[in-house]
Design brief:
The structure holds two protein chains of two kinds.
Chain A (H helix, E strand, L loop, with lengths): L3 E3 L3 E4 L5 E7 L5 E8 L3 E10 L2 E4 L6 E7 L2 E6 L8 E8 L5 E3 L3 E5 L1
Parallel strand pairs in A: 2-11
Antiparallel strand pairs in A: 1-3, 3-8, 4-5, 4-9, 5-6, 7-8, 9-10, 9-11
Chain B lengths: L2 E5 L2 E5 L4 E6 L7 E6 L6 E6 L5 E4 L2 E5 L5 E6 L8 E8 L8 E4 L2 E6 L1
Parallel strand pairs in B: 1-10, 2-11
Antiparallel strand pairs in B: 1-3, 3-8, 4-5, 4-9, 6-7, 7-8, 9-10, 9-11
Classes of the chains: A mainly beta, B mainly beta.
């Protein structure tokens, strides 16, 4: 059974804190993605990675960075959390051009 | 970013009824994916389609990859209360030469018992 796991289901952080969200997939997929999902705005791509140590900006990369040191793990970093980064964060992985699988999501609240 | 046109936006149906929703694009797709998302959860893959004309079933769900490669349909037969959620289509954006995926706007389904 395919699996994408995310390190936390719920997180509460304070403004200015550094936040790490981790994602692990067990399908040996080359591509991994971070999205945020907000009511009425759908899924928006923050960053994606098509290989270890490779990354590309998505549609809304400002305020975020990513790290992919191993094929199975993709981390999203909020360098200095702000209240407008309160959102549902979804990780996904895929083989190029094929099925994309999502993790269960992390609901982040920044106070 | 670019989105797929999905309709209807929402549906209220009686338990036991059949449901039909569709997704259209201005460009062709090589893969169509259908997901269901429940509140507070990540999207769960329902059906993946890889070939024009393909018709695939998963229990009470049936999806088709349109012959023009610009549309896809999802049908749910004999709906039950646990079918409630948001259904959305997606596909890899191969025409732009990237690895990105494009998502539909979603169909919100509510089932009345």
């Amino acid at each position: 059974d395919v699996k994408v796991t995310q390190s936390s289901r719920y997180l509460v952080k304070r403004t200015g804190e550094k936040v790490f969200l981790e994602c692990v997939q067990d399908m040996d997929h080359e591509n991994m993605f971070w999205y945020r999902q907000d009511p009425g705005l759908g899924l928006r791509l923050i960053y994606f990675s098509y290989d270890v140590k490779m990354k590309e900006k998505g549609d809304i990369p400002e305020g975020y960075s990513v790290s992919r040191e191993k094929k199975e793990r993709f981390s999203l970093i909020l360098e200095s959390a702000s209240t407008n980064q309160t959102s549902m964060y979804l990780c996904a992985s895929s083989t190029t051009g094929k099925t994309q699988y999502f993790g269960p999501g992390t609901r982040l609240l920044v106070l | 970013g670019q989105q797929l046109n999905q309709s209807p936006q929402s549906m209220f149906i009686q338990e036991g009824e059949d449901v039909s929703m569709n997704c259209t694009s201005s460009s062709i797709f090589n893969t169509w994916l259908w997901y269901k998302q429940e509140p507070g959860e990540g999207p769960v893959l329902l059906i993946a389609l890889y070939k024009a004309g393909e018709l695939t079933s998963n229990g009470r769900l049936t999806a088709q990859f349109g012959i023009t490669r610009k549309d896809s349909f999802l049908n749910i037969s004999a709906s039950i209360p646990s079918d409630v959620g948001i259904y959305f289509c997606a596909g890899p954006d191969v025409t732009s030469g990237t690895y990105k995926y494009i998502f539909g706007t979603g169909t919100r389904l509510k089932v009345l018992a």
